[in-house]
Amino acid sequence: MSRKSFPGCFSRMTWKKHFFKETCCQCGASDTEIQNEDLEKRGKVRKRKKKNENKRVIVSNLPFGSKKWKENPNRYYDTNEIKTTKYTIITFLPKNIYEQLHRFANIYFLFIALLNFVPMVNAFQPEVSMIPICSIMIITAIKDAWEDFRRYKLDKEINHMGCSIYSREQHAYVEKCWKDVRVGDFVQLQCNEIVPADILLLHSSDQNGICHLETANLDGETNLKKRRVVMGFSSQDTVFEPEFFQNTIICEMPNNDLNKFKGYMEQPNHEQVGLNIENLLLRGCTIRNTETAVGIVIYAGHETKAMLNNSGARYKRSRIEQRMNRDIFSCVGLLFVMCLVGAIGHGIWTGKFWEHPPYDVPDWNGNFVPPVLAGFYMFLAMIILLQILIPISLYMSIELVKLGQVFLIHNDIDLYDEEADLPIQCRALTITEDLGQIQYIFSDKTGTLTENKMVFRRCTVDGIEFSHQENDRRLKTQRELDLEDFAKLQHFTLPPMGLERPGTYKASTVRPLRRCQSDRAHSKGHARSRSVGRRDSSQSQVAFSSPIEKDVTPDSRLLRRVREAALQTESFSPFLHMKTSTSFTDFFLALAICNTVLVSTATEPRQRVTTPPPTKPSGITREKIHQIFQRLKLASLSQSFSSSQSSSQLGASFSAKSSEEPLAVLERCDNDNDGSAGSGGQELQDKGSTEIGTASLDEVFRSATNTSLPADVCYEAESPDEAALVYAAQAYGFVLVSRTPEQVTVQLPQGTLLTFDILYTLGFDSVRKRMSVVVRHPLTREIVVYTKGADSVIMDLLDSSSKGDISSDKRMKRIKERTQKHLDYYAHDGLRTLCIAKKVLNEDDFQKWANFRQEAEAAIDNREELLIETAQHLETKLTLLGATGIEDRLQDGVPDTIVSLREAGIKIWVLTGDKQETAVNIAYSCKLLNQRDTVFTINTENKETCESLLNLTLEEVKKNYERDKPRRKIFGIIPTSLPSPEAPSPEFGLVLDGRTLRIIFQGGLEEKLLELARHCRSVLCCCSTPLQKSMVVKLVRRQLKAMTLCIGDGANDVSMIQAADVGIGISGQEGMQAVMASDFAISRFKHLKKLLLVHGHWCYARLAKMVIYFFYKNVCYVNLLFWYQFFCGFSGNTMLDYWQMILFNLLFTSVPPLLFGILDKDVSAETLLHLPELYKNGQNSEIYNLSAFIITMLDAFYQSLICFFVPYLTYKDSDIDVFSFGNPINTIALLTILLHQALEMKTWTVLQLVAMLCSVALYLIFSVAYNAACLLCSPPTNPYWIMQRQLKDPTFYLLCLITPIVALLPRFFIFALRGTLGASLVLRAQQVEKLPKEQQDVEIQKLRSRKEAASSAPVASPASNDDLDQSIGHLCVSPFLHPAAALSPRDTENLGVSAPDPLGRSTYEEGYYFFNRWAEEESAAADSSAGPSSGHHPLVASREAAPGQDGKDYLKSFNYHRRSVSSVTL
User: Fold this and answer.
1) Which long-range contacts (CB under 8 A, 24 or more apart) does 63-67 make?
2) Best CA proximity match to 1116, nearest among 391, 491, 424, 439
3) β-strands 907-911, 172-177: how paired?
4) 1458: nearest Cα among 937, 928, 923
């Protein structure tokens, strides 16, 4: 049951808000130094002994109690009470003021306000000068206090949650608050309870000492993690007694690494037991599938790993803000010049008097102020007078505008994912405008461009490929199989073997392998039922369990093989090819066993299934199966003559015909294998199959179906790959029924339950790139190692030693070669590949290895390295069983999004850890690479070679660009209706692997890489580490000074996201660590299109115009005071009342700019999506740049001149007083400034119109009321009844009408001229939007075609889009290499270019027909076009070998991406 909290309930969302409200999950950072600095601040480290500064010693608190607490070494460690607030009631005022004074603007205005209290330099009433700065600081303080109060309530709620702590006085577990937990306490946890601190697991109610955790509160992952009791405490026969615990724990200092923990436990007899992360329960996790767990607290409070990850997001300053800060310094310089002019003018003015004027009063000694000192005083007075030249309200206005922009983005229904119930999250409030200035996008592949929903697509077993066309058809039609249809499929009757001709399956197996890459929406049935915000469903959230991942339609040929193997072993057929039968059986046993998948109940709370369900007798006894496996074991030792003969014939046939007809030959090879090779063997198998009949097959498998897995049981996997393989094994009858740490039970196709003893599980790690499980077979009692991993690793671990049996060696070699061909094709088609292998150990070898393993597990130092070494020692001399191809499906809308972003001028790089060919073909699928692109692939581990290849590629690219320069210049003048005689200029792509990146960064070749990458439309970095990802992003951001955006979904993308200007996390299936480190979080990659092209454009345009407007408004208004100084002897006096001056910016003109910055839309969303080129307006900073700032300043000076001198000339010879002269100027300035904004606004709303009218009305109402009530406000002048008298004067109205028109006429004229002559694309789009709907579409299409014709982008391929989509996985043809594309496969082999090998596809939909048809079309198109860029580029053949390297090695480094004919592979 879940623990209750004392003051109130504690929800999952509360936990997330508290621990990760603005967090950066920096898992890979250097931790110890940072945490020691935090501890220094709390005064903890100084109290410890020096010898313990690099480690933590923990003992039980029970022997000490309250009386001996001062003797407890744990007393220096933090308590579990957390405090994330900044202030208290006492410290709020001084601390908040201190923090606000860190802003330069606040210090400046506070200095001006205090300066006004000096009698010699005060310009107006000192109290009035305090109003602006006090208003701004009060508003900011209220906002800070509210945010801190929210943090306080969260802290209080968490600190008062309940947990059970062992009490020595009561000899039992008592209920206490979380804040009372101390390091060294023993805590008892119940199922579904949240862990209050970092606890070392000492006891579990599970008989195997296992405790399962759900880390969704910590990283968002819903799959369960296993934690183990510390070695030596795993005996669960007796109840754990905390009072008997006398061990000492020595571990590392607190750090924020969630994946590592090092330490050891020292027993009283000085024996040491190693500790690792598997023994640690982290704060914030939830106990699952475990009734009770007991542990001792290691880290508490702010020292827990979860709290140390709450370091706060890195403050990012937007590009507009950086530009604005520079312009504010320009305004400071302008203010200095104006004040200097005032000081000099004052000196000149006073120097003209022969006698001191009457207002110049001497001091008490009768001395007058010297002219120099008087000028200095006037300089300070002018600073006070003209202080509003620096926009004090601009900072606060920007914060409010960004809040409004974030609100609109968050409530955009198009950015809401209904399937996942997730809106967009705006986690950073300071960089919304940067979304409109992105120049480079760095994207992860898995889970970002793809769905991270792994779908089992194909497999190869024993060298035979199975295409799974039925499953392919199901995925194409996007229709889920319900349980009834699936049951019928499991019952279908297979024809007897041999009655079908070998070519029967040929036409049916070559279905086109397509991934979901279109913009069509998936049906609802395919949606993964996941909702982060809804946790109240009776069905718990299970990762990787959507119908599209679970339902696998088996391949009929493979299903027949598996069932016949089981049935023929039952009938003891003496003519079986036993090796093949065991390969098929072992293959699916490995899929079901070699994983860490848990079998759990599907209902909440989830409970682990540890015992197999009761099954009905299937008619096949365990003893009979035991005899069958013994017979299989004996038969596998000797191969029949027919099988070896057929194998040799098969290999000869394959090698003889592969160069001429690889598709047909490979298909025949597979079908020959289906017939079990050889005429003699075929006759025997036909006979055996006929005798078996169909009735026996139906009878056995009908009974097996009745004993299938219950409907209320689910699989919980740590990765989607594991889940996909387990579901695939289940589809073929190998059902994972239950799992414990010691045993795993699998149901065979005929319904028999086999329980394997798990001896060891060697988990996956990034070094080995594989995982293994060591089991004891229940029937043969053999010790078997099942291994699965990357093909690049497994293929090197296969047993290559000669066993004396020539036929067997040839057969294994042939299987390896054939499997490698299948793997190459899988990767070429964009599938994720895994190899499956096995190894049989004898007892002696296993015992030796087990002893070695136990020593490594008990090691204190270098434990991880020793564990990896022992695993590598076991995983050698493997026997290949087969391989799988799993599709990570493209997300909806990815190709369209990438095309639109590229049209917007954004360069897209993909940084992924996947293998190269998979990434390249995904790039073609999502249209990151085009069929006409020339792709350079550089793979090398040598610095000299790398530098030579970069120079070679750069030279070729530059040569092409130089050749195209004249054509491009002429091309812009040629009318778009006339066809260009030139062929389109090429586009380049660059592919690098992790090894090459390492050489580039270590060898100082970054500049060459950047120079080459700037000419490429796309760059793919494959097999790259998280560190390399962040280094690439930092390189581009710092060296190119470009605005970068990173998008990813996994923990390995965190460093990349944090390194970019804008980080976007995708809330996918890899947890929430990327989201928690990001600035914005979306659920789909396609949302990036509207987020950037629409909201990014709007946010930039709005904020840029608003900032420019603020500078204009302040400069225009302050210049009115400056011009008046020429007529008042530079005395620092004003013609305006102080209150009207203060409230002019603070009240009268404050609201319209805010609404303008939030609601204005220069172009509609539909037009922005149809014309992505409009995004370049923000990329190039066309609205707010230096020239725009200068022009705005000049315009402000002009308008201030008009607003001042038109009234001055009107009242020049009159006898009006100062305020009667200044009041019309103030009113005219208000109207001019508001009308100026009206000219800038492109979208009028009722709210904006009301704000405009209310600003004018508020000014008039205040002026009338103030002038009526103020009798002696500003002696000796008097503003009494000024506005009332002028409202009766027609001259006042005439000035308010004519002056704003004259002031705004130049700006209006320039706007009209700009719209008529040389209109920009934004202006054209605005003009198009004024047309009727029908004409809008026509004009937008014209603009798009004109833009495409003016650009150098390649034209569309002659093939249709559907053909292009089908051909992505097979062939990439370029006009630069069309002669090679037209060659025969034999010729391409002679030239060193590999022909495509699409696994036996011979229909007219694809395969060789499509290859030849497309090659002929491309060749014809290339021959018909003239120009130097349409020929063949013998790039590789024309180059010399690098220094210090022979030609063979040099060409070898060129040849990796060999199946892409269009690629120039380096």
Assistant:
1) 65/168
2) 391
3) unpaired
4) 937
Q: Are 749 and 569 in contact (CB under 8 A)?
A: no
- Amino acid letter for position 308: L
Instruction: Show the tokens assigned to 506.
Output: 């040929």
- Smallest CA-to-CA distance from 808 within 643, 625, 958 is with 643
C-alpha span between 516 and 888 (Å, rounded): 10
Sheet containing 186-190: order of strands: 172-177, 162-167, 186-190, 292-299, 198-204, 280-281
Q: CA geometry: angle at 1337 spanning 1333 and 1342, to 5°?
A: 140
Separation between Cα atoms, residue 1262 and residue 241, nearest integer Å: 78
Q: Where are the beta strands (DSSP E) in 59-159?
A: none
What is the Cα gyration radius of the chain? 39
- Contact (CB, 8 A) for 818 and 866: no
d(CA 35, CA 33): 6
Distance (Å, rounded) from C-alpha 478 to C-alpha 456?
15
- Residues in a beta bridge with 1465: 937
Summarize pLDDT for 1282-1337 with one digit per residue, the tens.
Answer: 999 999 999 999 999 999 999 999 999 998 888 777 778 899 898 888 888 888 88
Q: Which residues are catalytic?
A: 444
pLDDT tens track for 377-426 = 889 989 988 988 888 788 888 989 999 999 999 999 999 988 878 899 88
Q: Is the pTM higher than 0.85?
A: no
Identity at 808, one-letter amino acid code: S
User: How does DSSP classify residue 354?
Assistant: S
- Side-by-side strand order, sheet with 272-275: 56-58, 248-251, 263-266, 272-275
DSSP H helix total and E strand total for the chain: 51, 34
Cα dihedral value 745, 751, 752, 754, nearest 10: -20
Nearest to 562 by CA among 591, 522, 530: 591
One DSSP character per residue, 196-220 reads -SEEEEEEESSTTSEEEEE-HHHH-
User: What Cα–Cα distance (Å) separates residue 554 from each residue in 456, 471, 583, 691, 900?
Assistant: 10, 7, 18, 25, 38
Residue 166 φ then ψ, to 5°: -75, 130
Residue type at position 1450:
Y
Residue 1293 one-letter amino acid:
Y
The number of residues in the chain equals: 1466
